[in-house]
Batch of 2 targets.
Target 1
Amino acid sequence: MSTRTAPGPRERLLKAAKHLTYSHGMGIGVDAVLKEANVARRSLYEHFGGKDGLLAEVLRLSTAEDEARYRRTMDAAGQDPRDRLLAVFDELARVIDTPDFRGCRYLAADLALTDPAHPGHAITRDYRDHVHQLLEHELVALGHPQPGLAAGQLLLLIDGILAAGATRPETHPAAAARELAEHILDTQARFTRR
Amino acid sequence: MSTRTAPGPRERLLKAAKHLTYSHGMGIGVDAVLKEANVARRSLYEHFGGKDGLLAEVLRLSTAEDEARYRRTMDAAGQDPRDRLLAVFDELARVIDTPDFRGCRYLAADLALTDPAHPGHAITRDYRDHVHQLLEHELVALGHPQPGLAAGQLLLLIDGILAAGATRPETHPAAAARELAEHILDTQARFTRR
DNA sequence: AACCATATAGACCGGTTGATCTACTCGTCA
DNA sequence: TGACGAGTAGATCAACCGGTCTATATGGTT
């Protein structure tokens, strides 16, 4: 257990790599990571086997964090599935307003990692599946007639927010998407009302 | 005028760079481009001043082509603004089903070009402005009460389609987005009916 | 005190990057 | 014919890439 003790080389490497890959892309050099982490070259290869291993671990760690963040956001919004789902879009509005927001880390990774066999792709795919399940679970609780399709639509809106947030943040894409999200959720109302 | 004559080094460079930057990212090496274009090293620096100049010209050329493609798609759909706008989403469904589709070239460029001062960013920004104008123009013709905001929403859907199409094409994001697009357009109906 | 795993510093490797340069070939036009 | 501009071929450059290596220092356990 390294909790509470000074962060070791492994933690420092992950933190530096997470930061640098987001701000400078997956093409960042190993030397730059080592320098920011203040870690010896050898330690990287001891802990992660190489650059790809480090990048994969960064993605694994980040997806776990972001998944937990989705859960936290929804839990903070109460029990009503509608509130819980819309809270996600309010949270995304905050995310893309972060001063150093640079778009979706996972889409950037998929676009940057040219080799389709790179282990990173499996990680980002699993992440999207998990988020989809999270959304679908709420839609089922909401009584939505097509929770799977609706979850896909919400995910599409999220992708759009993150893309537009990176390129045209001044258009407030999260607010625009929230309105469309409400329409998706209201499909349930149309069915239950009749 | 080089029309109809064998393509010169400049054209060959642009074609090779366009292809390779899309399939292998902006980080592709100059050597690989020169090899695919079958062009001498020196010619690249004569025509474009360097790698950045070549990349910028590729983006300029591509945006012009894609802009023309939007116009062509809408013109082929007739005069009704509603048909013209929805045709865009049908066309996007075809685009992301292309076997070698790899996501939006311009979003990938913005994410890959780390330096915010890179000339490529200005080009992608102008491109999005032009597409926004194109959409807004149709929305005005449709009598939409908030054509600017609605165009932003449609653009958000387009971003979402291209992102989801690159990462989860099996979910048919274009069809999912088309339904949401219809809702955006129908906002007009709600207003004109009263 | 002795030991050992872990970390550090940094030289070193072959290969590649973007860029510059010289020398040569080719086609066109005066 | 001869000169010239454009293109080609390829050597060369410093910088950097990911990865391996040796040697040394540190800190905890027995």
Target 2
Amino acid sequence: MDSMGIMARKPTAADQALRLDNQICFAVYSTAHAFNRVYKPLLDRLGLTYPQYLVMLALWERDDVAVKDLGERLFLDSGTLTPLLKRLEAAELIKRTRSTADERVVLIALTPQGHALREKAKAVPQSILAASDCTVGELMAMKDEIVALRDRLNAVLGE
Amino acid sequence: MDSMGIMARKPTAADQALRLDNQICFAVYSTAHAFNRVYKPLLDRLGLTYPQYLVMLALWERDDVAVKDLGERLFLDSGTLTPLLKRLEAAELIKRTRSTADERVVLIALTPQGHALREKAKAVPQSILAASDCTVGELMAMKDEIVALRDRLNAVLGE
DNA sequence: TCACATTTAATTGTTCGCAATTGAATCCGC
DNA sequence: GCGGATTCAATTGCGAACAATTAAATGTGA
């Protein structure tokens, strides 16, 4: 077969598909890391990691919600969220309380400091926009495509 | 200001930008996780995690390379790669050897088993393609856009 | 009512991902 | 040569991410 040797061989479609450059998943994976690195210095000023920032974004839209609800919005499970939320509570940005109606449920609420942090966070998106060197319209179009892809992937998982 | 209270308030552009739905970074982040979950059962059969699969993809294209070279291709550093490569070595898929020319450098080479695994891996991309429910053309177009975004983000980091 | 299934968070263990540091090897200017 | 800067991989420590399990609370059917 000489698949690794000196002899020339016409690359098959399967060969091409295994090329790193051709993989959309690697494109998405490496772009996620690039975003993370761009966010890092901005979020350091807020005392947040990127996943913590996502949790705060979700809570600024709606708080007093169960861990499960937060997990569904962020596509994360309790194994990830429980320790992360404990760190946010230690930072006094949120408060965790058992629901009285259903004691299995832990409700997450913002503290005054948690609410207040939103003002400081408003500067973040425009810094990212600048770093992306794109227009808002371009980014939103891309975002819609990527979300559509994500939702199709998640649909397969749900089967 | 009543930013959290009952009074209605016209959402500003900054408010809109903080919405989770509007964030391309969250779209990318959550899509990366969705890919990971789709890959998981496929890669389990190969005995690889997703990052390990990426390393193998890179090595199938070119091996006998330094850790640093691998890191540049995958956008990862030695803190991530060193333990990952040790696990691949333990699985006998790669061999790590110090370069004789420059003893700081560790060269990564595929073992026969490492080469052989490529044949089994050929089935993976088409399964992903099916899960994405897209045409190859659509995916490649998206990939190019995302890579362009990644490269602009990385360019800002390099400044 | 009571057994049994389901739901919800928390926990445990493994693997990334990265910042910061370390230590060895190499390079470079003088 | 020699000394300091640089390069490279490894290490340490922390924070995700997730599978699998646990434990408690709740729901359901006979």
